[in-house]
Amino acid sequence: MGNKLKRVVIGKPMKSGELEEEKLSKMKALAVLSSDALSSVAYGTEQILIVLVTLGFAAVWYSIPISIAVLGLLTILILSYRQTIYSYPSGGGAYLVAKDNLGVGTGLIAGGSLLVDYILTVAVSSSAGTDAITSAFPSLHDHRVLVSLIMILFLTIMNLRGITESASILALPVYLFVAAIFVLIIAGLIKYVMGGIHAEVPELGTAVSNVSLFLLLKAFSSGCSALTGVEAVSNAIPNFKQPAEKNAAKTLVAMGMILGSMFIGISLLAYWYGISPTPEETVVSKIAEATFGRGVLYYLIQGVTALILFLAANTAYAAFPLLAFMLAKDKFMPHMFKVRGDRLGFSNGIIILGVLSALLVIVFHGDTENLIPLYAVGVFIPFTLSQFGMMVRWIRLKPEGWIIKLLINTIGMITTLTITLIFIFTKFSQIWMVFIFLPLVIFLFFRIHRHYMNIADELRINLESDKPEIKGSTIVIPVAGITRVVLHSISYAKSLTDNVVAVFVAFDEEEIRKMEEKWEEWNPGVRLIILRSRYRSVMRPLMKFIDTVEWKTAETDHITILIPQFITKHWWQNLLHNQTSLLIRAYLYNQKDIVIATVPYHLNR
Amino acid sequence: MGNKLKRVVIGKPMKSGELEEEKLSKMKALAVLSSDALSSVAYGTEQILIVLVTLGFAAVWYSIPISIAVLGLLTILILSYRQTIYSYPSGGGAYLVAKDNLGVGTGLIAGGSLLVDYILTVAVSSSAGTDAITSAFPSLHDHRVLVSLIMILFLTIMNLRGITESASILALPVYLFVAAIFVLIIAGLIKYVMGGIHAEVPELGTAVSNVSLFLLLKAFSSGCSALTGVEAVSNAIPNFKQPAEKNAAKTLVAMGMILGSMFIGISLLAYWYGISPTPEETVVSKIAEATFGRGVLYYLIQGVTALILFLAANTAYAAFPLLAFMLAKDKFMPHMFKVRGDRLGFSNGIIILGVLSALLVIVFHGDTENLIPLYAVGVFIPFTLSQFGMMVRWIRLKPEGWIIKLLINTIGMITTLTITLIFIFTKFSQIWMVFIFLPLVIFLFFRIHRHYMNIADELRINLESDKPEIKGSTIVIPVAGITRVVLHSISYAKSLTDNVVAVFVAFDEEEIRKMEEKWEEWNPGVRLIILRSRYRSVMRPLMKFIDTVEWKTAETDHITILIPQFITKHWWQNLLHNQTSLLIRAYLYNQKDIVIATVPYHLNR
């Protein structure tokens, strides 16, 4: 039944050889990997304007140079990650780059903050998507958490079904969003050029009395939140169709160009239309309204914007399992993240991501807005480390043209580092958790690593000298009476060795006498030892007896405890039987180096 | 840690030989077994008056003849159960008497309704006790369910600690209650005789216009709720010190006399004082107030009354596990109810009673008043069946003086049957559940019985002809690599037989090649078979392989699957390893008649 359900929800299992077919074409990759980055257009310009209007409306013109600066940073990041893709064709996330060039510890800082970040992405994006839905259907407002959880469940199932399938479903809204924003920008531009807009706007270069570098930097760093998600492509190179690096690089550049033009377009329109942000309405909504009025096109733009915010979470579903896989391969995370599931995705990573982000949504009752700065810091730390790693790499390898490459990464590193510092400096009250969680996660990575290393050490054998050794054998069979299961077990034991002992635990003299008589009558050719239990416990006398046997024969013999066990036809029937054999198993299993064998006897009725 | 906690809460385990010391003296038995019956004094008279006042105040004089009738019924029940005690010295609950004389089916009806009834007793009594507490401390009213659950937990722990110990703690309030009620009755009597009461009361025999036999019978049956709990002594004979029957009979008679005199005393005072019941104040409270005023004695009486209502639940803790034991001995209930725990009580019965009554309290939010009629019917059905059983017994055995004995039981049977019918007739809307639950419980009894019988049949062997048979042996070892655990397992297997095969599941060609090479280099003297898995499942190819081995060798060989298993030092470390071996075990265990042996290897780090 459970298996059938799994088939319906997840689909039939796929052969390992089908992996290549599951890989992404450029068009689909753009949809799967860029929804996080592209969705930032919905709020990037707004973030800048929110900081600027605190200086007065005259300051809004600064949004243009700041947007250009963000665009510059985007260019640097794209160029930098393009270099990374070619340098690390098997997937060059911040973890790999930092580990490779700056050492394992630094790599783990980058990897750890990205892992946590992906969980935040899913929680924040699904909550934001829910907000968009509940704005449209206010009656759902009381069920926000439920709606978010349903979204997370939906994403988890889609990703468990496989990469291609989820790409096919998810590509449409992404391209719809891109198309809608471009239509908006072009229509807005035409309207502006035709003189259809009569807004009073401060001219570029207008003097603003109380402007400070700090505030401009703050506005810049807020605008940089539009850049989260850019790293997704370079993490996911193994998901691309061959030639993977080339396809990934092209996808990255395409994404950068789309993102850049949408971002600058929105910023320009916002400036020309003289829009200042208000809490009630988004900047994009205001632009759309000014351009089209509240018609079909306006609602279409709002609708796809809500949808893309929700889909942004899907980027994390592509990136988290891959990063977890890489960390698991290096033995910093549990083995289970290395296993591909029935549909060739890393199911465990997908499930864990779903569960953890769902927990976040539940704990924060769907109000995850406070997590956004945390989430931005979590992105810029690995950005910085990754670029620093690339710098070290160029200096170390010095390939052709390395000076320019080094320059690109150096500029990138300094910028991202500055943004990280600004974040820490201006929003410490919201991001201090990073400095607790990150060390904790890294501590766990190292603990896990040590455990795997210790086990490997302990289990390693010398192929030359460590060979199997043959010893004698003693088999102990605890019996609860003379039944077919016991007969079966004794037959089995006697087929293996002559050293077989049956043990019976009795509670009173009467029982001892009866058992002795019956055993003598049966005479199965095996010695019966009767233990007297004064405390009505079967385990204690049995364990004492096994201790004695061990003490006497462990040198010369392998000791086996053979447990006769009948297995009922229906699970509920187990309630009708004392599960002493399970107790014996559990106890021995944890306590002793003794082989425990179960002789099952399946009941027919 | 868990074990230590258990010791503190329950106490140290006791030897089976200490059972006799755990048995009850008459004084303690009276306390443990009679709190249910004696507590009825707190509401018995009131139940009669509530029905009568619907006819007008003039009708309250009927309470005197009705109380005398109840007293008569009590006498009959006591005489009847006294006969039962001597006839069934090993415990003569309604279940045993009915089963013995009327057949198993009837016995199960009696036993089943008593079992359900004991659960109701605990739920109803603990809720009633809670009401008394929350009347005194209204701030606790919102935590009624919690208070009830704490009471149930307390009773459960006391009973797990052992019978004597709980008797010692519980005896005091019972005797305090008896003493307090007697002081009240005597003081009230003196006050009445000295002419200290000037109430207008209708004279005995006053004509009442609208009186009907039906209403009088209803008042009588309501008064009979004072008789619930009388059967507890005859169920619990094995808990008495030797000579058990004599002690039990004396205890029963003593209880009857105390109950009878308290009941008639309260009824007389209520009549003389001209008390009619009101919802705000109990009849006992009104009598106490009229006698002592609202002084220390008044509050003492109210206090111990509340306490005894709560302790009434304890009677069920003595009776339920014993009845469950008897049903389990006859294979109508799971074996586990036959086992005596560390402190010699039937722990499983005690725990199940606690859990089920706690569930009832939770489901009904502590408002269990509606369950009271259900609870009375649940008592009178087995009363009737038990007496009917005794009638059949006298007719069958015809001992000396059987006519009188038969007469006593016949009168008793007719009376209790009438009361049962009146209950069904007048309160069907509250008791219809009995006719759903009772058949269900009895159906379960029979299903359980059939299961045990089937298994006994299936497992029974012929001691003459069924002897152990010696066959060959094939051992299959699934390996995941070449490690110390595998070395250990191969050593073990080779010590038992030469027919050993190692199986390895590989996911790709590369893996196959590597494993083949390494195995050849190691050369442990065991053949390695490599299975190729195209769906990344270890289980499926392995199971197919085992099927093949079974098909080839099951005729001549015992097949053993030997599972190498390393055991981590800390439980959480298991999260770091794929638990494939557990999967293999679980699957084989449920599917195949193959011996599954685990070779544990305990990691040190």
From TrEMBL, chains A, B:
Entry keyword Transmembrane: yes
Family matches, as Pfam families: AA_permease_2
UniProt keyword list: Membrane, Transmembrane, Transmembrane helix
Compartments (UniProt record): Membrane
Domain of life: Bacteria
Record's bilayer topology term: Multi-pass membrane protein
UniProt keyword annotation of Ribosomal protein present: no
Ranges that cross the membrane: 60-81, 102-125, 145-163, 170-190, 251-275, 295-325, 346-366, 372-394, 406-425, 431-448
InterPro entries: AA/rel_permease1, APC_K+_Transporter
PANTHER family hit by this protein: POTASSIUM TRANSPORTER KIMA (PTHR47704)
This protein's name: APC family permease
Record organism: Paenibacillus hexagrammi
